[in-house]
Request: fold
Amino acid sequence: MMVNLKRIFRFGLQKFWRQRNVCLSLIFTLTITLFAITSLFLLQRVGNYLIDIVQERVDIAVFFKKGTDEEKIINVEKEIKTIPDIKSIEYISEEEAFKKFKEIHKNDSYYLQALEELGDNPFLASLNIKAKNFSKYPQISNFLSNGEYKDIIEKISYFDNKIIIEKLFNFINTTRKFILIIFFVFSIFVILITINTVRLSIYSEREEIKTMKLVGAPASFLFGPFLIQGLIYILISIFLCNIALFLLLAYIGPKSQEWLSGFNLYLFFKDNFPLIFLEQFLFLVLLCFLSILFSVKKYSKKV
Amino acid sequence: MIEFKNVSKIYFSGGNSIFALKDISFKIEKNEFISIIGKSGAGKTTILKLIIAQEKPDKGEVLFEGTNIHLLEPKLLQFFRRKIGVIYQDYKLLSSKTVKENVEYIMEIIGASDHEIKRDVPEVLEIVGLINKMNSFPSELSGGEKQRLAIARALIHQPDIIIADEPTGNLDIYNTLEIIEIFEKIHNLGKTVILLTHNKEVVDNLKRRVITLDQGKIISDSLEGKYIL
Reply:
């Protein structure tokens, strides 16, 4: 067993070394494929990050009638928390709202004077609700406006901004779908190119595969050397692709932070490198090994 | 050892069917030295392809020690092929491997130890006169050298059966006699040798069993035959 493994490894290394000139095109294709897929992955992450930022800025505020008992508001808060996909709820009492307003406008005598003239605290207690998903906001608003708490609720901000929120929701959904479609189409494109390049390189060795089969080579001796050779290509391609990505992202990283609302592509790539490396490796192993197995099987099947 | 039972093989070309073999039956016993002769297209190479299961018969069966070769599981078929040493008319050498590696490959797939490989390969290359070319690639060899390499590869693991398809086609008379002498030596070691040829001198000098094929049919099978075509 060990002797056979050693021989298969030797055959693989030998094939790689002797075909090193021919194999440059395959390594180049694999590197480009990987570069394209990793770039698409990074773009998808950037897209999701920007969408999350937009989503983060949207919330709905529920204002309660003047003098509503705090205990009742806490009960509303508890019930809303039972709705799935609620990200956060913040309770702001009438006094806190008053303090916050004064704090924000402490240098603005016009507002402070207006407050003084009113004499009383004009602010209402409120709950600021953030959902994980835009689609939850209509459900929350309907739950509050039609439920047992409707009598203590003065206003729900969602209804004022309903059209804008829905437009934003549609835009985000469309953008997400678009990013996914782009990712999918480009992935299919580069995957097909890679499969065909691998198949072509094995096609040139079809007579050798047939001869090996005719002289009685077991399956491990037929497939093994190709898989070892493929593994070397994969590791070289990953190395070249990541060197290029590191250099490129190190250059555009600080700039990307300005363009992309604080998202530093270089730091993201560096922090997630072990995971990205693993995904790149598994992706290429799956792609190349399946192409190799299908092609070698195809040519060895004929004898 | 090997038995053809009512075997027919048809090839299709351009909408026409061509009979490569027509209902042929014969037996080759263990330790026989047999020549199968015939003109080009008589069906000699088809017999070789059927024995090593490179092709399947359209009718009949090919048996090896009572087992239908064409019904063997893929793993067993590969095991069976390792028992046969074949010298192909078109050599079928591994172009990406050197002379030495071509021969070593056979030893490696049968699981021979590194020690056995180091001991046997130079010896066989010495016999076929390729010891000085052991690091050359097949593309750097002449036709005769390729043929001798194919012979070395077929003999290295001392298989039970040697099948040689026109093994002397690219050799001069001196080398031809030398190669036939090697086959006789192997035969004397208790191996079965099947020679597919249209070399009259070789067949006549051997004075062994000869099966004569013509247009896919056996027209004679004599124990001490001569080249009659």
User: Anything to note?
Assistant: The beta strands of chain B are 2-13, 16-28, 33-38, 59-64, 67-68, 84-87, 161-165, 192-197, 209-214, 217-222.
